[in-house]
From TrEMBL:
One of its GO terms (biological process) is positive chemotaxis. Keywords: Bacterial flagellum, Cell membrane, Cell projection, Chemotaxis, Cilium, Flagellar rotation, Flagellum, Membrane. Gene3D superfamilies: CheC-like, SpoA-like. Pfam families: FliM, FliMN_C. Belongs to the FliM family. NCBIfam families: fliM_switch (TIGR01397). InterPro entries: CheC-like_sf, Flag_FliM, FliN-like_C, SpoA-like_sf. Its main location: other. It comes from the Bacteria. It is found in: Bacterial flagellum basal body; Cell membrane. One of its GO terms (molecular function) is cytoskeletal motor activity. This is Flagellar motor switch protein FliM. It comes from Aeribacillus pallidus. GO terms for cellular component: bacterial-type flagellum basal body; plasma membrane.
């Protein structure tokens, strides 16, 4: 409940009304109690939180953008598709809200149980078909007189949109949508129980001069297994993980190509400046390490391995014998 701060003049007016009897304290209490009571319709059970509805909205806003680009290229005319609303309501109410005769594309998602309905306003469907067949995109509602060929063409138009639906969901879940059925009478489709909750996504569609709605009906049973993935926290966490994994892979590849100096030390010796200045070709320097002792191999300036000298293919080489532990490293 929001807390409103009254000005001094409003407080004075309220006190004056109570004093003169214009306002009854008991009536105020009753009004306050009435505000606390909310009517709940059990037939319209809200199965999805606002957070989850927002996630579903984002997915279908992406789908709308993909459809706009796809249909504009295919039909070669002005196309604009936007998400108008996302509501959860009983399946029976959805059926009552759409025309008695309309275009119904029923498809499955592959990885999830259940089916989804894509209901397309006949005016839009016919305008798309007319434009695809070389016409001007005339809009008319002749859904009851569609020939078998026209039905096949319309079904094919929307079957090709399923690839874009798969892409729209790719940030949350990998799906494989597949068209199952084409129908024109919603009474012949009994997807779920009449009182079961469905999410209805309404897309306002403009194709040339024709306009109408495309409605996607998703039953709760379809989305139930992935409800935890529909939260904003999961969404952002997944995006962050994906981004981090990409950055990590880039860093790994760059590290693999980095060049570092590797030095095998035969031993060390301490000489005075005078001895150093008097050195001549052929002089010998005594090292503080026996020929039987392993060599210390440094990566950069850090001792990392033990090794022994030798030859491979007539070239000098060093064989790695072991890794220098931190204690051994500190001793060096």
């Amino acid at each position: 409940m929001s807390n409103e701060i009254l000005s001094q003049s409003e407080i004075d007016a309220l006190l004056s009304a109570l004093t003169t009897g214009e306002m009854n304290v008991d009536e105020l209490k009753k009004e306050e109690e009435a505000k606390k009571i909310k009517v709940y319709d059990f037939k319209r059970a809200l199965r999805f939180s606002k957070d989850q509805i927002r996630s579903i909205t984002r997915v279908h806003e992406n789908f709308a953008r993909l459809l706009t680009t796809y249909f504009a290229a295919q039909l070669r005319t002005y196309v604009q598709i936007t998400v108008t609303s996302v509501d959860q309501l009983p399946y029976e109410e959805f059926v009552r809200s759409i025309p008695k005769m309309t275009v119904l594309n029923v498809f499955e998602l592959g990885t999830l149980d259940g089916r989804i309905i894509m209901e397309v306003n006949p005016n839009i469907a016919y305008a798309m078909m007319d434009r695809l067949m070389g016409g001007f995109g005339a809009s008319m509602n002749k859904i009851e007189q569609l020939t078998e060929i026209e039905m096949k063409i319309i079904a094919s138009i929307f079957e090709k949109t399923l690839e874009h639906y798969r892409e729209a969901w790719s940030t949350i879940l990998d799906i494989e949508p597949c068209m199952q059925e084409f129908e024109v009478n919603p009474q012949f489709l009994q997807m779920v129980s009449p009182n079961d909750t469905v999410v209805v996504i309404s897309l306002n569609t403009q194709v040339g001069e024709a306009s109408g709605m495309i409605n996607l009906c998703i039953p709760h049973v379809v989305l139930e297994p992935i409800i935890p993935k529909l939260s904003v926290h999961y969404w952002m966490q997944s995006e962050r993980k994906a981004q981090n994994s990409v950055e990590t892979e880039v860093i790994k590849n760059r590290i693999k190509l980095a060049e570092v100096p590797v030095v095998a030390e035969l031993g060390t010796s301490v000489v005075t400046v005078q001895e150093f200045l008097e050195m001549r070709v052929g002089d010998m320097i005594r090292l503080d390490q026996s020929t039987s002792d392993p060599l210390v191999i440094k990566v950069g300036d850090v001792p990392k391995f033990f090794g022994q000298p030798g030859k491979k293919n007539k070239k000098l080489a060093v064989q790695i014998l072991g890794h220098i532990e931190r204690g051994d490293e500190a001793d060096d």
